Structures are given as C-alpha cells and as structure tokens.
Amino acid sequence: MVRALLACALTLVACNPAATTAPPAPLPAPAPAKPPGPPRPVALPAVAVTIDDLVVGGRDLPDERLQEMTAGILRHITAGGVPVVAFVNSAKLGEGVQRQARIRLLRQWTDAGVELGNHTHAHPSLQDTPLADYEADVLRGEPEIRALDAEHGWPLRYFRHPYLRTGPTLEVRDAFEQFLAEHHYTVAPVTIDNSDWLFNLVYSDAKSRGDTALMARVGVAFITYMGEVLTFHEQATDRLMGRPIRHILLLHANELNADHLDEVIALYRERGYSFISLADALADDAYQQPDRYAGPAGVSWLYRWEFTRGPKQIDWTAEPRIPEFVQTAYDAAQRAD
Known about the structure:
The protein is an alpha/beta fold. The protein has helices at residues 2-15, 17-21, 63-80, 96-111, 131-140, 143-150, 170-182, 196-209, 212-241, 255-270, 278-282, 301-309, 324-336, and strands at 46-54, 84-88, 115-118, 158-159, 186-187, 246-252, 274-275.
C-alpha cells in the first residue's frame, strides 16, 4: 500500500509542471522555548527510609558479621535505588584500632550515598537524662559523622532522638529544640514505627547458635508483621489527615534488615510507594502540624499530631502485635542477659 501511494504521488508531480517549479512552502516558525516548570511533585504514596543505631543496633557483632551486615543493607538500598539517612551513635565506634576500623565501616555508608545524622554519642533517653548532659552527649556525637558527611559536601543537619523520646515536659522539650536550632539541626520525625529491633534480637541470637530454621521462621514473620504495620499506619493517616502523606519509616542497622530489607522494599513498592529523600518527605505540609506531646512514650508523629489536635481518632492499642513465638524468645533472651 505504501509503495502504491508513493507511485501515485510521483505520477502527479510528473504530469503537473507547476508542481515541479512552485517554491516550497515556508517552514513554520519554531515555537518559543518554554520556561522550565515547577519541580514535579512527589508521587503519593511515598516514603523516606531512615536507619538508626549505626554502626550496629542491638547486640554488638564480631568484625566479620558486622561487615557482612553492613554490606547486606547497603546492597539492598543500592539495588533498590532507595535514598537513606542513617543515624549514628558514636560510642559504638569503640576505641583505638577498633575505632578506626569502624570509621572505615561508616565510610562505606557515605560512599554508598547514605547521609549520616546524629543519634547522640551514647543513646541516652531525654526522659531521664539532665538536659545539660543530654546536650553534651549530642555534641560529643558530632565529630566523626560531621567529617564523613563533609567528604561528600553534606552538612551535618539531621538529629534523631533515641527511643523517640523528645522530653519529659514541654519546658525541657522546648529548651532542647532551641539547642538544636542553635546548632543547625532538623529533627527527623518518624511516622511509621515498628519493632524490627525486637525481631532482630531473636534472629541474631539464632544466627549465633546456627539455628537457621528459627532464622527463617522469624524472617517470614517479620515481613508479615511489616505489612500489617504499614496497613495500620496507612489507615491511621487516612483517619487523621484525610489523605496520604510522605511517610518516614524507621528501621535499624541489624542483621535482620541485612537479610530482609529487600523484601521490605518490595512490600512498599507492591503497595504503590515511591522512595524519596528525607528532605522531600519533610516538604510535606503534614510535618507543619503542631506537636505538643511530652512524656515517656517514644511514639509516632501521627500519635503526637492526634494528641495535640484532639479528639482521639485512632485506636493505638490496635497496632500489630509481635507474634507470640518471637515475643517469648525475646523475653527469654532478656531474662538470660
């Protein structure tokens, strides 16, 4: 058909001299270049991943396992293209030769594109630590992570409260927030909290014993639990905000996530989530909600916003529970310690 149409067109040109002598029609003027539009909005639902307690959360690990754990987590976030901010307790760097080795381990995180934030030096709780001592511990946690971030041109800008405890009273909380502002910190909130640390203690202890069957069972239960956690917080967000928000997920640097973070990433992607930076998450207006919670609980910012706004809309007692076999093993390990 295309060949026949071309033959017909050539015949018409040959039989019509005017067709061979008429000047070509002028080309249309190019359209003026459009100015760049505003940045594309982040697709919802979206989540920023944060990882606490570097260099390792929970029990300390031998050097070989610590290296394997670090490599596993970094492999998952690199393969998944997941932006991460990770929070360091500098006390976990140790001293002497160990300290230098663990600083090199932290450099693996920054070389993989992970920005480091301050999680204090020794992971104290603001609930029962005098404010002056707590502030001193924050400053003590700075030097190594500030230097590592600076190697990539990043400022040290994020702080995460240990245990998510932001102060026993509003007076203490407000004073500490003033301290953070003076030292150019932004608080890293959490909207999706979970108990990966509890699963990990059982998982890591099973690994130490070579109990691969229990490790596998804990891993399956953990992913099921994380799906339930996401569902709960999605429903709580809808009830509280009336829309999806750019969530911030808390995880920990541990062997459980080293082996199963890819499944967590896949779980979120299956629910339609994109992975965004912490800065992009904080650009959501949700994080401008007033938060006047003070007290002993380390809780999601969803809880804080509901507490401040009132009245109560979310049944927080309905949060997903730890499977009984995991809780029992955890309690037994705590008693043995």
